[in-house]
Amino acid sequence: MSQPPATLFLVDDDESVLRGLGRLLRAAGHVTKSFSSPAQFLAQLSGDTPGCAVLDLRMPGLNGLELQQVMASKGCHLPVIFITGHGDVPASVRAMKAGAVDFLLKPFDEQHLLAAIEQALRKDAAARAGRAERAVLHARHAALTPREREVCTLVAQGLTNKEVALRLGTTEKTIKVHRARVIQKLEVDSVAELVRFVDRLGQG
Amino acid sequence: MLLLTPEDMALPAMSMFVATLRSALWEAQDGPITLDVESLDLGWARGPVYTQALHTWYLAKYRERRPDALIAFRTDTIQLALELRQELWPDIPLIVLSEDGQLWNHTPRPERVAGLWLRYDWRATVELALRLLPDTRRLAFVNGSSPWEQAQQELLVRELQPLLAHRGLEFIDLSQLPLAQMLERARTLPDHTAVLTYTFMTDPSGRPFVGREIARMFLAASNRPSFALHDTVMGLGFIGGALVSYEAVGEQLGQLTARVLGGAREEFLQPLKPTSSDARLTVDARALRRWGIPRERVPAGVRLIFDEPTLWERYRWWLLGALTLSALQALVVGGLVVERRRRMRAQAELAERQRLEKLAEQEARRTLDQLAHMGRVAALGELAASLAHELNQPLAAILSNAQAARRLLDAPHTELAEVREALGDIISDDKRAGEVIHRMRALLKREEPRQELHSLNDLVGEVASLLANDMHLRGANLRLSLAPTLPGILGDGIQLQQVMLNLLINGLDAMTELPEGQRELRVGTASPGPGQVELSVQDSGGGIEPSRLARIFEPFYSTKDHGLGMGLSISRSIVEAHGGRLEAQSPPGQGALLRCVFPSVDPESAHVPTPRHALPRGR
To answer: Which residues are in the HTH luxR-type domain (chain A) (predicted)?
Structure first.
């Protein structure tokens, strides 16, 4: 599956800062999209582009922190870097608590910005890979019958075949058959791997 | 016109010099001129770092404001002026007032420089002292310790050496002493000493002084008669000297400047002419009496000031004649004299009272100006976060663009168009930052108040844009409703803007308790009646309690936790100084309403057209 290139979404109501920022990041080899208002940005937000967002903290209408919340509520997982010309401590604490990658004071040096962006892109890629993997696991899990799912859950909890049979009111032999199907459908090799699978599924 | 002066404008000599220079220029130009005065404070601060900083600062300040001519006073200032001119406007004329007549005798004279030579005549002053006090055997010399004052002292010693040697005078140098020690020595000077004072700008510890104040302290301490060189200190108790009149010097320099501006090229070629006010020998008659120096010793041609002849001197012949006529007549005459003395005393008292009243009025005016300045500094302090933000925006854009441009140039296929755009943005952002500093600087500047015609709407617009970001940060909306046409208002623009800034910040402060969406500040201008213009500021806060309404203009009364209680009282003083009135109302349920009504200028003809103001940007 070929991924679209990572895109940096820049939102700042100061046109001049926005232009300079875009120019710098493009010169550093990034793909950028610039928006001069939060509303514009939200309107164009497409589901699953990899990348990160660089948001100004103080904007009329919706400030950066509020925008961060709206993004999260819309299922947008882009990592956020805040930039601000007026750094106050409470705002930066709130931003970092809400999961921002970094909080840069204007004027910021390219090194800091580019380092923050690298970090954000790595974070995005890792999160994206995690989500993709979990999607595969979910698909496999969905292929199990209801009875197989019950067996899967109990086996993963560490119960022996006999205990599972007792719990589900059936014979050990039937459970063995179900278990073999589960292992086959989930594409794992052993009970140990099955336990790990259920673990990872649970994290989603 | 840009004038560079070496010292604080508060020094009496400086302010007198500048005031007469200004009026001479005005007269010669037949109309108002703009004279920017920059005081370099060279007596109090100097060194390469300071000079460099001045240089950088003026480059920034005057990049966009080209003066018609540059005027500089004193050799050290002239040097700096030459460097600045070289860099900024190499083609404008420089008019100098130098205390060194030999300034360009050893080095080539720069182009387009005209000037005058201000001579301090130490020799004539000492000669006058020796005439008045013939048994003088010692000459004590008092002078400050700044580098310029020290350089002047070297000149003085060189010039006086022959005279001192010829008359066998001992030279006592008090100029290297810290103030306290200098005053101590002044109390215990040996007999037969005459004191020559020059300036008191700094003592050896580098403490800066205002010369006139130190002169007063020195005269109170000194046990010997003292002489001076500046007409600004006469009347304090100095006996006299060859006085430089800064009034005359300012006027001559103003006339010279006007001639140069009028195209008189020959002034650039002539050697520095001495000012005609040189060595005006003057003696204070009251000081003569105090030291018991007979009037007969005052040489002919010396101007006698504060000379009030005694009754005996004035009516001597008449009285003698009357006495010889008859005793009765003498009695009548005596009665007349008593009557006259009584009337004169009454007149003198009246004159003295009037003088004191005038002084008090001037003092009050000065205090108001100082308070106004302090108020502006305080108001800008409240805006500090906002101003930092205003500056950081363009700085961020500049840095990003500059670093982008560097990257673009390092790239294998350089896109010159993109680099050019980046540089264009850098330039416009730099100007934007400069504007912010310029606006701030204009408000902080401490100048003599000016009387100029202003558009109230323009003043409001500038203040609103200065405050725009603060409004935004505080979640408040500003609604401007400006009258489309408005008569002009005469006054000091900066002081008027201070009033506006104050009222707007007060309004903002009054709304902090409200939820963000409800903070609204309404600022309006109108012409409520013929010959009047009005500014109104209404907030949407809780209003002012009726009991407090009467007190808010009192000094040190504040409804704010951290308020000084000076803002409104200063504002009212400023408004009243402009012939207007400032009132507060609190309409029920509508927040506080502050109204300033000013007299307008000629409502029939002087309609100042008003450009519509765009609402301030969102940040």
So the answer is: 137-202
